[in-house]
Amino acid sequence: MKTPTIMKAGVLALIFLASGGTIATSHAQGFQGGFNFGGGGGFQGGFQGGGFNFGGGFQGGFQQFGGGGGFQGGGSFNFGGQGGFQGFQQFGGQSGFQGGFNQFGGGAAQPFSGTANASFAAGSVGGQPGFLIVTTGNARVLAIDAAAIASCVVSGLPVALSQRELLLHSVRASTRDVNGRLFRMRAGWDPGSEKMAVSQSPAPMSGKGKVVVQPQSMQMSSDDGAFTLFASGGFASADVDWRGLASGFEAESWSGTLGAERRLAEDLVLGLAGTYLQTDGDFDSRGAVDLDGFAISAYLSWTPGNFYVDTLYSFGSFEEDIHRRTGLGTTATAEPDSENHSVEFNAGYNFRLGALQTGPFIGLDYRNGELDGYAEQSAGRGSLAYEDQKYDSLVTRVGWQASYRIETGFGAITPQIRAAWERENLNANEFVKVSLTSSPYRWLSGGGETPDYEVQARTARPDEDYLNVGGGLLIEVGSNFFIILDYEGHVLRGNEEEHFASIIASLKF
After folding, report:
1. CA dihedral (6, 7, 8, 9) positive or negative
2. Smallest Cα–Cα separation from 11: which of 134, 144, 123?
3. β-strand 196-200 against 141-144: which pairing, if any?
């Protein structure tokens, strides 16, 4: 009998069933030949039960594989006889195939060769569970590491598809309203000269009640000190559900910032800041990541009259420490690096109604970054390699704010509330590619090609529009010291929420 070889369709079908999504796979060399995986009816019954279980490969098993005649290959190859797979209820588990099958092959049952029998026992290959055994008519035996492939698709790919969103969350936490400059400008406090808009009390009426002085806005200014030093601490959280094939994740970020401002002119301020950031993330039981690094930011704020304009540039460099559960009883580790460039533009106008400052504001945040490609360690046959990931994000916003200054014995307190509608314009779904670092194919008897295995899928694009709500307090102590307590939340974004909180202290010299 002519010996056929096996093409990749079988593993493709296995992966489609395991993932339930739209993915693409490829092999560097590929199996060639005529192999029909599924017969006329394709897969029927599919996975019945738990599918892929991290404790021990696929559990729940295959109740029925193939069509009416199992796997058929045009007569030259019959996989499983007339009844498909018979007799086993569990695929994977602690000992691979369980339930007792003695032979695979054509219509006439053929036992495995002595070499093949010496290569596996109790359905495992080399004592490792989760292998699919394929035989050909001349007793060539191929082991397909289905558990390693499943680890790539069910664990590695979902983690890879989520990394970009986790990075963007961390970057937002590192650059959000450095030194509270946007809060202050929206509150009507000129960051350069500390001008505050206050209401001048109306003069008393004349004795005849004919002369009335209307309330009017005036500027109070202190020119003392050209330098301001500031320090801040921040906390941020993100909760993202599954989107398509991308794993959900939860993340918490802590940041600390030190910086200085210099007044270049009466209404112009230049600021520099350095931020240390740490993020702890969890990929919905598939693994965890610890991210830390630094961001350097520079900003320029201009406050001509009731207008304000601000521009910020930030560069961030971060390192991730990733631990991924392979589902094979091992944990894969990696330490990739990433870099990010951010440009933010904000502008607004304040209507000054006595102690009340209110008005519209607009903004634009552009971010560009890259996560370096990396290869996992310590996971043996479950180790994966990941290609570089690049991302672009452009968020636009339109909002309104209201601030009210209350004089106190020690200075003043200004509460503020604000809301903006934001839109993500560029964060498109891009292909992400993941591959096994070693081939999942092993010839147990005979020989042949052992191609590489890789899988790729598109990232799931998040909801474009969402609501940004925030509020806080500006506390002035004397004329040279202030504290800001601030909160911001991103809500109404489908399956994603972000929250930010910060405390900022600033001293003018």
Report:
1. negative
2. 144
3. unpaired
215 neighbors 201 (Cβ within 8 angstroms): yes
Measured CA to CA, the distance from residue 93 to residue 70 in angstroms comes to: 23
Q: Decide if 92 contacts 58 (C-beta within 8 A).
A: yes
449's tokens: 């090609």
Do 506 and 230 contact (CB within 8 A), yes or no?
yes
Cα-Cα-Cα-Cα dihedral of 54, 55, 57, 60, to 10°? Answer: -100
Q: How far is CA 107 from CA 64, 162, 484, in A?
A: 18, 46, 79
Nearest to 164 by CA among 377, 454, 465, 461: 461
Q: Please state whether beta strands 496-508 and 227-240 pair in parallel, antiparallel, or not at all (unpaired).
A: antiparallel
CA proximity to 448, closest of 237, 142, 99, 107: 142
Residues linked to residue 478 through DSSP beta bridges, in sequence order: none
User: Contact 11/452 with Cβ under 8 angstroms?
Assistant: no
Per-residue pLDDT of 152-167, as tens digits, reads: 999 999 999 999 999 9
Q: What is the mean pLDDT of residues 210-214?
A: 46
Q: What is the pLDDT of residues 253-284, one digit of tens each?
A: 999 999 999 999 999 999 999 999 999 999 98
DSSP run (H or E) holding 121? strand 120-121
Report the SS3 class of residue 181.
Answer: helix
Q: Nearest-5° angle of CA 291, CA 294, CA 298?
A: 140
Question: Around Cβ 261, how many Cβ atoms within 10 Å?
Answer: 23
**The residue type at 261:** E
**Following DSSP, what letter does each residue of 374-412 receive, concatenated?**
EE-BS-GGG-EEE--EEEEEEEEEEEEEEEE-EE-SSEE
Residue 231's beta-bridge partner residues?
258, 505
SS3 449: coil
Structure tokens at 392: 């672009």
* Domains of the chain by residue range: 151-190+224-435+463-508
CA torsion through residues 133, 134, 136, 140, sign: negative
Q: Is residue 373 within 8 Å of 336, Cβ to Cβ?
A: yes
Q: 187, 403 in Cβ contact below 8 A?
A: yes
Instruction: Inform me whether the pLDDT recorded for 62 exceeds 50.
Output: no
| CA 263, chain centre distance (Å) | 38
Burial 227-251, CB ≥16 within 10 A → b, else e: ebebebebebbbebeebbbbbbbeb
151-190+224-435+463-508 CATH pick, 2.40.128.130, 3.40.50.1820, 3.40.50.300, 2.40.10.10: 2.40.128.130
The phi, psi pair for 184, rounded to 5°, reads -65, -45
Q: What separation in angstroms does the CA of 267 have from each of 307, 310, 480?
A: 11, 12, 17
